[in-house]
Amino acid sequence: MSHTRDEPQFTFIRLVLLAGVVAIAVFNGRGFSPAFDPLLYLLTPFVRGTPLGTQMGFYYTTSVLLSLLTFVFSGLPAALYERVLRHRTSSIVSMLIWLAVAALLTYPAYKAWQDIF
Fold first, then answer.
1. Cα angle 111, 116, 117; round to 5
2. Which of 29, 57, 59, 108 could form a disulfide with 67 if both were Cys (CB 3.0 to 4.6 A apart)?
3. How far apart are CA 33 and CA 40, in angstroms?
4. Residues above pLDDT 90, as percent of the chain
5. What angle do CA 108, 21, 34 make, to 5 degrees?
6. Nearest to 99 by CA among 7, 28, 4
7. Residue 90 and residue 82: Cα distance in Å, rounded?
8. pLDDT in the model for residue 108
9. 29 in helix, strand or coil?
10. 3-state SS of the chain: helix, strand, coil percent to 5?
């Protein structure tokens, strides 16, 4: 029996894979990533003097920005894959590419977290 992309089970699988990408991106922004401190240093002049210029504001702003950067940059290879194959919607393969690249970007943060515990 052949399945089409519009069936609910494929939509559910894509949503689960997208939730996995979001969870991995949030983990990368938690402060374990080696990119956290350099990003905090670069972000400091832009946030100082604003309501986010407190110590916790710096931490949370850097965390959210690092999570968003992980989410966006991990989606680039999947978008290129869809563009090359001229897909109009995301396929499960492109979502798996997105998840794999997000996991690769988060690997240094995972290793740092593992060393702590």
1. 100
2. 29
3. 11
4. 69
5. 20
6. 28
7. 7
8. 95
9. coil
10. 75, 0, 25
